[in-house]
Amino acid sequence: xxxxxxxxxxxxxxxxxxxxxxxxxxxxxxxxxxxxxxxxxxxxxxxxxxxxxxxxxxxxxxxxxxxxxxxxxxxxxxxxxxxxxxxxxxxxxxxxxxxxxxxxxxxxxxxxxxxxxxxxxxxxxxxxxxxxxxxxxxxxxxxxxxxxxxxxxxxxxxxxxxxxxxxxxxxxxxxxxxxxxxxxxxxxxxxxxxxxxxxxxxxxxxxxxxxxxxxxxxxxxxxxxxxxxxxxxxxxxxxxxxxxxxxxxxxxxxxxxxxxxxxxxxxxxxxxxxxxxxxxxxxxxxxxxxxxxxxxxxxxxxxxxxxxxxxxxxxxxxxxxxxxxxxxxxxxxxxxxxxxxxxxxxxxxxxxxxxxxxxxxxxxxxxxxxxxxxxxxxxxxxxxxxxxxxxxxxx
Length: 395
Ligand code: NAD
Ligand code: MG
Fold this sequence. Notes:
Elements: E1 5-10, H1 15-26, E2 33-40, H2 44-54, E3 58-61, H3 67-74, E4 80-83, H4 85-92, E5 98-101, H5 109-116, E6 121-124, H6 128-143, E7 147-150, H7 153-161, E8 170-177, H8 195-198, H9 208-216, H10 218-231, E9 238-242, E10 248-254, E11 259-263, H11 268-277, E12 300-301, H12 308-319, H13 323-339, H14 347-361, H15 372-392
Parallel strand pairs: 1-2, 1-5, 2-3, 3-4, 5-6, 6-7, 8-9
Antiparallel strand pairs: 8-10, 9-12, 10-11
Helix pairs in contact: 1-11, 2-3, 4-5, 5-6, 6-10, 6-13, 10-12, 12-14, 13-14, 13-15, 14-15
The structure holds nicotinamide-adenine-dinucleotide (NAD) and magnesium ion (MG).
């Protein structure tokens, strides 16, 4: 059992995490994988069940007040349990061959960066890592010879289309977006939509926050910035198309007029399985795409008036520096306020736009993020400004 692949999953109890555990179990479980670390948040019961099933060495809950309960579920199993942010960062320093980064939001950034400092492959679902710390992540990967393989379905698709290709020969890439639950809703009705309606994604089963981000198209905005960093492409080389069926995940358009697309049913286990077995492919027992079953594949132009979040993402790329950190942090604050019903759906856009414009006027974005501390200083500053805007409706 010595040559088993060493695995850690950060955020194993979330939507991506649960799918990752499922892929591991379908791919041989503990016979093939030596699971070093599993981490979660409040759902410590599930975390313990996963750890027992996969015979993990260590479980970490992000929240110290959940440690005793976590310990009670794993009593007698020999599994070690820790809690808190520091424990999480230390766990990310344990070398693994393969690490899944699937904590939601900015909370997942440090874990991803720490893992990159310790070699191996980082399967990156946490898009905030690239959006907020893309330059640093790439630098660390190069320095420590670790490999980033994207798990976001669109970026996994681009990554797969680019295998064996020369990035210099790429004219543009196209990311698809389902359009979410409000694709056809008249724009003036958007101000009334509830968080529960926004969380009801038509095609993908995902965590609540990313589902609402899909409805507001902030998710696609983050993905545009993520693609810019991952593949070193300028904003004008990244297109977005609405594709309600979510079958074509992304396309790469080459200089010779040829386009390569990656397709599949909307199931994140496909991108997770690809990253798990990279650079090989391994049999995965999930539903196959059947072209004859699909009545049509349709595409529509995106309307920046309907989705200011997407227009702002291109501004973020042009601004550079800490604009990605600010975009994400303000979005997270506005999203939290929307989930708590303190603001309406459209207020999320005005909050992000106002803070970015305010900082742009102060020439803030000329500063590059060089270190993790600078990234989190910017994150904090953007959250303070967001709170002021959300309270006073001005800055
Ligand atoms: P989720 O909300 O379902 O799960 C989040 C995980 O992070 C859980 O394990 C939770 O316990 C943990 N967590 C929450 N707050 C934490 C904190 N403060 N510290 C440490 N851990 C914490 O989220 P998800 O849908 O699985 O998404 C995870 C990441 O993957 C996000 O960045 C998302 O954008 C990205 N992603 C998700 C999907 C998807 O299909 N769900 C697709 C592409 C990319
Ligand atoms: Mg995606």
